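Example 9 (inverse folding). The structure is encoded as follows.
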């Protein structure tokens, strides 16, 4: 399941917590905190699309992380539910 950068780029929650943590040699919790702060730029060599403005999915991800800051799977599940209900259309 995906969580979103502020630019709207989807990132797999598992990939953020596990692969990013391994790549940066840090803990999954710290990798998630870094993604919350930097978004796409947390991944070495990645950056947000230059012409991308804020996205509704990105804003929803940020708001959900304010409520449950350490639960990427919960955030991803809630985003998936919101999408299924048509909230992002």
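The amino acid assigned to each position is listed next.
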């Amino acid at each position: 399941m995906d969580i979103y950068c502020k630019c709207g780029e989807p990132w797999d929650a598992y990939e953020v917590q596990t692969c990013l943590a391994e790549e940066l040699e840090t803990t999954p919790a710290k990798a998630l905190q870094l993604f919350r702060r930097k978004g796409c730029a947390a991944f070495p060599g990645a950056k947000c699309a230059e012409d991308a403005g804020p996205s509704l999915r990105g804003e929803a991800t940020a708001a959900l992380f304010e409520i449950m800051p350490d639960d990427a799977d919960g955030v991803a599940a809630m985003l998936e539910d919101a999408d299924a209900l048509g909230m992002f259309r």
